[in-house]
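Milestone 3.1: sequence recovery, worked example.
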């Protein structure tokens, strides 16, 4: 498991200090603050060795063509000048749960892409759920499995399709899926058929208790994570299809909504990895994608209930998720006066704040009403701050706001008008 992550003077980061909670750590902040970059440093421990893109050297600042994003603050306060080192630069460190440490280093000379070296790398088991969920596309199962795949094969078959789509390897010209590619839902459907067929057996096929445990365990996970309004009952195999049997009807796996598919996708990846390792890390980028607000509010608590032995690290913009689990470490990534990113640990006393307060205080949203409504209120303020505040003007202000359907904002607007009076 992870204990700490520290980064200094690299890319947009000036000062990153993260203490990982044993169960849940949440990273939040505006786009461009580096949340996904931090996740990818963790993901390198279990095979997601994605390259980082280099930046061009500013003219006259160095002898190379590209640089890795390492910079040093100069005495004049200029934090934008890249330094071309003679050796690799240490940009930070990772501290593991057992106290071991690994340095994070960037190379001295790079081309268009480069890798961050982690040395010495500890053995950490984990799974990454990327922000781009693979759509569930119908692909017919043309052959029934003749043997039960090993747990490793089941997990790898699904993850290979997820990774292939994330990296673009499964796509051909014009962004179309290659004809020999299988969707993740195809691999899930095939695995569920295999588990059910060889798990429960029949008069001629022996029962496989482990397959039954995996199959029924996945059903139990879905009962926790799928919305109560759906009324999920069980998975039913009706060759050559897999159905979700619910109180609202039976649905083909590929016919479920994007939100339900996203939950099934996350649940299957984590559930199958849990068959291989007792304790591991789960990193999820933007888990709120495709989910209804009610599911956004419930997802993290449900994940902790379904997988209590996992350490979750989440990156999200969603205020409902940020405040959904009080026993967690929540870090906001924010730009400072130097136009560089720092981490700020969110005070747990503020977790009970409203969505609007979280959006403004934590995520830096300047206002939470629609932009058109803000513009209208600004015009009204401009009009009424130019005239004396009298009983007649207050009556006129209230009438105008009511006419525009914004009467609920009258007290706040009136207060601002009053503040502007000489």
């Amino acid at each position: 498991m992870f204990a700490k992550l520290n980064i200094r003077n690299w890319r947009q980061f000036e000062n990153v200090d993260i203490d990982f909670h044993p169960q849940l750590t949440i990273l939040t902040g505006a786009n461009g603050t580096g949340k996904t970059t931090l996740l990818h440093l963790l993901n390198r421990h279990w095979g997601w060795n994605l390259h980082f893109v280099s930046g061009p050297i500013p003219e006259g600042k160095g002898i190379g063509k590209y640089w890795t994003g390492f910079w040093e603050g100069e005495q004049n306060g200029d934090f934008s000048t890249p330094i071309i080192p003679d050796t690799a630069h240490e940009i930070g460190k990772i501290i593991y749960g057992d106290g071991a440490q690994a340095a994070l280093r960037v190379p001295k000379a790079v081309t268009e892409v480069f890798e961050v070296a982690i040395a010495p790398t500890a053995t950490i088991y984990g799974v990454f759920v990327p922000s781009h969920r693979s759509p569930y596309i119908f692909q017919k199962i043309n052959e029934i499995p003749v043997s039960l795949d090993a747990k490793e094969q089941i997990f790898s078959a699904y993850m290979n399709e997820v990774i292939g789509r994330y990296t673009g390897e499964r796509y051909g010209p014009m962004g179309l899926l290659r004809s020999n590619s299988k969707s993740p839902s195809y691999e899930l459907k095939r695995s569920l058929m295999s588990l059910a067929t060889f798990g429960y057996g029949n008069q001629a096929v022996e029962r496989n208790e482990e397959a039954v445990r995996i199959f029924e365990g996945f059903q139990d996970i879905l009962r926790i994570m799928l919305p109560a309004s759906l009324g999920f009952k069980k998975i039913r195999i009706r060759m050559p299809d897999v159905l979700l049997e619910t109180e609202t009807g039976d649905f083909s796996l590929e016919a479920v909504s994007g939100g339900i598919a996203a939950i099934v996708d996350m649940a299957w990846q984590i559930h199958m990895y849990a068959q291989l390792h007792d304790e591991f890390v789960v990193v999820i980028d933007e888990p709120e994608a495709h989910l209804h607000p009610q599911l956004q509010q419930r997802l993290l608590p449900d994940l902790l209930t379904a997988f209590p032995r996992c350490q979750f690290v989440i990156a999200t913009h969603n205020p409902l998720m940020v405040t959904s689990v009080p026993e967690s470490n929540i870090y906001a990534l924010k730009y400072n006066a130097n136009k560089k990113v720092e981490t700020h640990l969110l005070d747990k006393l503020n977790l009970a704040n409203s969505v609007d307060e979280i959006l403004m205080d934590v995520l830096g949203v300047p206002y939470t009403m629609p932009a058109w409504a803000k513009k209208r209120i600004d015009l009204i303020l401009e009009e009424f701050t130019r005239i004396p505040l009298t009983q007649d003007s207050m009556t006129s202000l209230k009438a105008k706001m009511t006419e525009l359907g914004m009467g609920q904002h009258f007290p706040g607007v009136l207060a601002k008008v009053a503040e502007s009076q000489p």
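The radius of gyration is 26 Å. The chain is about 35% helix and 20% strand.
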